[in-house]
Each structure stands twice: as structure tokens, then as C-alpha cells.
Amino acid sequence: MNIVTAKGLIKDYGGLRAVDNIEFEITRGECFGFLGPNGAGKTTTMSIIFCFMPPTSGTVRVFDIDVTEDPGIIKSRTGVMPQDDNLDPDLSVFENLTVYARYFDIAKRDSAAVAWKLLDFIELREKANVTIKSLSGGMKRRLLLARALMNRPELLIMDEPTTGLDPRSRHSVWDNLNHLKANKTTLILTTHYMEEAEKLCDRVAIMDAGKIVTTDTPEHLVNTHGVNLEEVYLKLTGRKLVTD
Q: Does position 241 have pLDDT exceeding 80, yes or no?
């Protein structure tokens, strides 16, 4: 069953075409990645899937619901982990989870129980009562992941989930995401990290200048086009994929 289906998707900003007539399907329980540099159209595509902005033309259906017709239902069944840190600095780690739960009308008693389970999941229980400013960058990313899971989403959307993290913190987030995959949560992520796509994604859509160049498994892309995904990107687009 498809969780997301996009057909003829176009998004324009004034005279700029950020997403250029793309099509893709994402099935239940898979991890699907949009791979490409900044400006490729990855984040715009994700924003449309989450109903943050409407498409200019074409259709996107999530849970078989058009994103322009009933975005509230889609959002209630979806978790979002943004690229930027938008945690509330005035709240404790625990409160960042329980206050966020109010957006989904989760009762305070229920949200507390879920929050403790998620803090155990991301290994931050001992940080429950500290302020956000005392957390490392890796801890903040894990907390953003936990917050995205407060409504027990069927679909988890992540924009560059490990940007700026050191290798140890990055692998910690990957461990969390692989656990979610094992429990059949559907994952969609954007990334420009080659290793991240290879470690997590069942399939990737390689994007360049708003278009999807190809969609395939990382393994098949590497076996067909090059020794790693960075080389694959260069071969398919003629441009080097700059990573940090």
C-alpha cells in the first residue's frame, strides 16, 4: 500500500520552479530518501507532503488523502523532524515533549507516559528536567526526533536529520531510526550524506534542479553506476554533490 503518491508535482516561487514535474510513490513501512544538494527541491517536496505548502500543480496524496483537501487528518498521523532546532528554550526537556503533545489533544497524563518512554528510547531520561541550552547538538537532534514521535505517527518526515552532528551522534540517531524501521514506521528523509542514504534508505530519489533524475535502491544504484552514491550522483547529473 502506498502511503504517499505524487503525480506531476510542480512548485513555483515567482519565476523559480523549485519542483519540476516529479512523480514518486512511497510504500508503507519503507524508508525513502530524497538525495541531493541544497536547492535541489528536496525540502520543498517534503513541505508539500506535510501540507505546509500547496503544490502549484499536480497531485500529492498521503494516506490516500489529497494534501489540499484534508491536511488536518494528514498532520495528525504524521511526525515531523525539522532541520532547524526549534525547541522551546524556556521549557525543560520533558516539557518540550508534553507541551508539544497539546497540539494533538493528547491528555496530560497520557503525554507524560509517552514522554518518559521516548526519553528512554533516545537515552535522555537523565536530562528530563534540564534546560535546552544545556544539551549538546546531538542531544537536541535526538530530542527533536522524540518530539516528532509524540503523536505516535504512522509516517515520520525528517529534513536532514543528522546535519551538523559528529559521527558518534549521527550513528546514535541512525540507531533510533533503524529501530523505527524495524517496527514498520514509514520514514521519509532528505539528506546530502552518502553514508546516511546507504545506511537507512530502502530507496532513494536523486534530485537535481527540481527534477528526480532516478529512483532506485542505493545498492542497485551503486552496482550500476559507481562505487558509491557520491560517484553515482556525479555520473547521473554531471555535477559533484557537495557534502559537509
A: no
* Diameter over CA atoms, the chain: 55
The average pLDDT across 172-179 equals 93
The long-range contacts involving 109-117, CB below 8 angstroms and separated by at least 24 positions, are 111/150, 114/150, 114/152, 115/146, 115/150
Taking CA atoms, 16 is separated from 19, 50, 209, 213, in Å, by 9, 21, 10, 19
Q: Is 3.30.565.10 the CATH number for 1-77+154-244?
A: no
- Cα(first)–Cα(last) distance of the chain, in Å? 36
Q: What is the DSSP letter of 215?
A: E
Cell numbers describing residue 224: 550500476
Overall average pLDDT of the 143-160 stretch: 95
Answer yes or no: pTM beyond 0.90. Answer: yes
Average pLDDT, integer, range 1-13: 96
Where do you find CATH 3.40.50.300 in the chain?
Answer: 1-77+154-244
CA angle (4 as vertex; 57, 173 as ends), nearest 5: 120
DSSP 136: -
Place of cell 527533536: 144
Nearest to 30 by CA among 134, 138, 149, 182: 182
Mean pLDDT of 205-233: 89
